[in-house]
Design brief:
heterodimer; A: about 190 residues; mainly alpha; 6 helices; about 70% helix; about 0% strand; B: about 120 residues; elongated
Amino acid sequence: MDFSSRETWAVIHGMVLGVVFLLAFSGALAEMWGLRPGMTTAAGIKDRMKRLYVGFGAMAASAWLTVITGTYVVYPWYRAKLAGAQYAACKGLDLPSKNCSPRDFLLSNTSGNTAEWHNFGMEWKEHVAWLAPFLATGAFLLVIYYGPRLVGRPWLRNAVVIMLVAAFLAAVVAGALGAFINKVGPIV
Amino acid sequence: MNTTTTTDFAELQGLDLPERPDGPGAAFMLSAGIGCFVLGLFTTLDEASKAVDAFLAPWGPGGVGPLGGKVGLAMIAYFVSLALLLVVWRKKDLDIKRWFWISVGLGCLGVLLTFPLFFQMFAPK
């Protein structure tokens, strides 16, 4: 049941923060959907706004923490160039090792046609993930600024939902690619 | 510009909500679009130019490579544009729909410019 330090950080980055992000998204979307005229009372709106602030805030915070831990903690272990010319240290391996980083391992094609997981998968993941915190923070600030006024502004409410869903989609692409890449070439 | 008021809705009348200008709302949208676009721009420029790659590489801590420069510049663009737009627009009532669609355009460009099949077309042969 042991986890190495690197595996622990990969879990924090991908699972712990990712789960918080997904849960916060679900809650925020459901609360936004119900924030319409005729759906609740003034007291109900006040109560709903508290949950909206928490949901949107948690989503923005977890988006920032996920990309920061991913980029500055986990990613350097992934992309270390250890295997030398022609990825010699990766030859014959089934998984990355101390002398063959996940990037080296994938590019070496030593366990099948894996190079595209880096050339397409990781190249997309490492960039698209960073769109999520900008969009989630923008949506959070809009909810904080307008608050209950969003009830009477359906167009603005839809704009917030679009930003929220766009942040979610960026995170889903990055998260799914991260899960697949970690399956083929795990951080060790 | 907002054409409805909070007094148009019964459930809002008891909350005593003063109207707010749309300038800050437009700033929140546009700065997010700018952050996405700048990230995409430097992703494609990094692929196309070794000089840009050499400029971006030292930005992050060791091992991150040019990604540190791309995300560092995108964060600077996001936070600086947010602060500046808030200062300039904090009391203005703007056409927020217009700024939203401009932000959507910038965001879509950011997505395109960070898509590998697109930016890898600019890699030197």
